[in-house]
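Students often ask why we bother encoding 3D structure as a string. The short answer is that it lets us treat folding as translation between two languages. Here is a chain of 177 residues written in the first language.
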Amino acid sequence: MPGAQTSWTVRKAGAGLALVAVSAAGGILGMGPDARSQEAPLAAGQAAVFADDEAAIERLVERAKAAPNGVAVEELARTEGASVHRIAIVGEVEPHRHLAHDEVVRVVRGAGTFIYGDFGEKTVAAEVKAGWTVAIPRGTAHAYRPAKEAGPTVAVLVYSPPFDGKDRVPLEGPGGK
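And here it is in the second language, the structure alphabet:
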């Protein structure tokens, strides 16, 4: 429940509506489903609620189509312990690892092949589709190839601790660049 200093309201967001936490000073504490709209990380007593807004997802997919690597990411929310992102993938996510971040991926749309391991003898490929969740401990090398016939992949990512955008180490050698 929001604290006494926080109220909830419904506002227009993209083509849909969003539940919004508003501070006593009138600042938005959390909002969805459109792009991130927070003044600071959410704290105890606050929450951000997001829906799968088709218009927001389509805008993200269009950004991915225009991106050189075929990937677009937007941050939806951040707390002191984790960050939540939405990703659209039309290209391939190259093999990489996060040394300081655990990652959880929930596929919302599309399908493809999630690849993890050492990208040598101990490589595992798992077919995933909408509704599947993948947990990736820090240090685990991983990659993703969307199934072209399934269209773009859209997923929600949760990183712990909050992702800083810097902890993405490309895999060197076989399977990597």
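Translate back mentally: The chain has two domains: 1-51, 54-170. Keep this in mind for the problem set.
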